[in-house]
Predict the 3D structure of the following.
Amino acid sequence: MPKYQSFQSILDNQVMVPKQLLTDYTKLGLEETELVLILQIHRYRTEGNSFPTPEELASTLTVSSQECSKILRSLIQKQLLSIEQQHNEQQVLNECYSLEPLWEKLFTYTPVNSPETPEFNE
Amino acid sequence: MPKYQSFQSILDNQVMVPKQLLTDYTKLGLEETELVLILQIHRYRTEGNSFPTPEELASTLTVSSQECSKILRSLIQKQLLSIEQQHNEQQVLNECYSLEPLWEKLFTYTPVNSPETPEFNE
Amino acid sequence: MPKYQSFQSILDNQVMVPKQLLTDYTKLGLEETELVLILQIHRYRTEGNSFPTPEELASTLTVSSQECSKILRSLIQKQLLSIEQQHNEQQVLNECYSLEPLWEKLFTYTPVNSPETPEFNE
Amino acid sequence: MPKYQSFQSILDNQVMVPKQLLTDYTKLGLEETELVLILQIHRYRTEGNSFPTPEELASTLTVSSQECSKILRSLIQKQLLSIEQQHNEQQVLNECYSLEPLWEKLFTYTPVNSPETPEFNE
């Protein structure tokens, strides 16, 4: 009989993914490999690594580190990813990826003018 | 200046994704499109649709509904996805997808070499 | 041997709680029963009930429905909870609780002026 | 106009709370202060502190550290909380709180004999 991980371990190891990322990534001009790379950046961040290398990213994807570098550049060009500078606990300046540009695009409220879904009609 | 969604709406619209799905999908023989289709099934479930059609799935992916059908069959063959029967609120028997086989594989505790449970042993 | 719920069921039944609600509720002048009532409103919302009655709330707390009514009024007075009007799927106008005032208070960015961390200096 | 935290910061700072903890804590003989102390232990854990002191716990509650100590002892007596030994990254043996006994109680599948909701009746 298989032995499972503890419930605590399962509860501890979740990432929260905005549904809109899953429903709208194609509208942002992304395809599946790019989406998964974004999810890996998001996951690494929750583990305290906010600037994973292309090699670290590639280790969890089916594509090469060269391909990961290419996708990273493309996400930055599309203004979905940025590189920020951040002080770490020792006050040393570090670079880190920020997905804030992506979240800002996803969470912008879109007024709905079309007849089909007039959700808000005050 | 852009107007953003409410914080409540952002908090309401998240899916929880086990980190191990992101770190281990390649070990399960999956590639990115298959992973994203799994995430979409998981998302649809949180929205009350536990048996999305290939067309519904394809509407959020870059691949066709034919390709989605093919991936669904492949996931069932790999014993990561199953089709279950479930009573809905009106006591009508419905089919729904279950990702339980996938979670059971991901959450199986992997003993590290020795017979007891030496979780930390180097 | 006990039989546990499915992993799917465990994954499906989580609520996301902002850490700041847990760290800062006392600074907002709240005590534990008020915090838990807020968490129950948040949970009911994820289950599709955005206007739980005092009786429904009391059924999951150790306090009476009269006490729940009193707490609800107090949260509204403290401007942490509001009652909004919302169209449901049948375009009928319904009332619902909104925790948006609470989230706005919690998520307001507090500028840090000094080198240490005097985060709150009213 | 208030300035809000980044979306990334909001997404980064959530804890996942099983709904059953919120719906069933009174059935486990707990009241609100005990529930909130459990939530704080759970939160500290996500921040890398798996053995918060009574003083650390009290700093986020309305009760004293003496009262927190008393609640901790009571949770251990009720077999909802345990103290485990764990190797940290430097291979030093540390004590940490485990909520596993609580999760096991909450996630035990309860067969339903009553007429209203016979969910599984194969």
Notes: The two ends of chain C are 56 Å apart (CA to CA).
